[in-house]
């Protein structure tokens, strides 16, 4: 585009110079009283040539401007395409990052659950009331349903010294190794925790 503008300047200068030269050339013809018809014809020819050159130069300038506008439009469209592609890539990267974070968080949560279960012993199976040893010791999941001469109101696994489940609903008891007893349960081996 710049080249077209650059080349149009010399053309315009040429046109002006040609016009001026033609005007200068006409002066002697008119002043010397020579052939006025011949001079007038030459002037008309020069003017016509100048007009043609100006028209051609203007057409060339207009064509160059149109071409420049077309190129600018194509460049702008290409820039938009690149920007959209970059935006899509950023969105995809953010989604992938978010998904990876979710997966990692789930893995951490699972690992924490596993550790907690291992520490608390909650991964062990629950003791059933029809277990042979449970039957022998009169174990019940709900102490309030116990009918045993040794039972006293208020006694239950969670306040038995052998219960290691803390505040959990089910916890380990050394009388029933490998099983979990109910915090509200009771068996004839109940031994109250010492008073704090
Ligand atoms: Fe519950 Fe204590 Fe009997 Fe274990 S020994 S089952 S904790 S009452």
Give a description of the structure.
The model is unreliable at 1-7 and 17-34 (pLDDT under 50). The two termini are 95 Å apart. Strand 1 and strand 2 form a beta hairpin. It is rod-shaped and about 150 Å long. It has three helices and two strands, in the order αααββ. It has a two-stranded antiparallel sheet with strand order 1-2. The chain is mainly α. Helix 1 runs antiparallel to helix 2. It has helices at residues 2-31, 36-120, 132-136; strands spanning 170-172, 180-182.
Keywords:
two-stranded antiparallel sheet, rod-shaped, binds iron/sulfur cluster, 3 helices, 196 residues, 2 strands, disordered N terminus, mainly alpha
Short overview:
This protein is mostly helical. It is built from three helices and two strands; from the N terminus they run H-H-H-E-E.
Topology:
Layout: H1 2-31, H2 36-120, H3 132-136, E1 170-172, E2 180-182
Antiparallel strand pairs: 1-2
Iron/sulfur cluster binds at residues 139, 157, 160, 162-163, 173, 175, 181, 185-187, 189-190.
């Amino acid at each position: 585009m710049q080249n077209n503008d650059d080349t149009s300047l010399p053309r315009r200068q040429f046109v002006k110079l040609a016009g001026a030269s033609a005007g200068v050339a006409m002066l002697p013809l008119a002043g010397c009283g020579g052939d006025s018809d011949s001079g007038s014809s030459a002037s008309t020819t020069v003017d016509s040539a100048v007009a043609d050159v100006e028209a051609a130069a203007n057409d060339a300038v207009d064509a160059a401007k149109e071409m420049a506008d077309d190129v600018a439009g194509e460049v702008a469209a290409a820039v938009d395409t690149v920007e959209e592609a970059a935006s899509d890539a950023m969105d995809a990267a953010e989604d992938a990052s978010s998904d990876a974070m979710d997966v990692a968080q789930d893995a951490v949560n699972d690992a924490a659950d596993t550790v907690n279960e291992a520490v608390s012993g909650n991964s062990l199976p629950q003791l059933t009331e029809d277990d042979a040893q449970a039957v022998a010791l009169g174990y019940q999941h709900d102490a309030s349903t116990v009918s045993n001469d040794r039972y006293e109101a208020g006694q239950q696994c969670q306040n038995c010294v052998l219960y290691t489940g803390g505040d959990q609903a089910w916890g380990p008891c050394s009388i029933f190794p490998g099983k979990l007893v109910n915090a509200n349960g009771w068996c004839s081996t109940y031994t109250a925790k010492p008073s704090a």
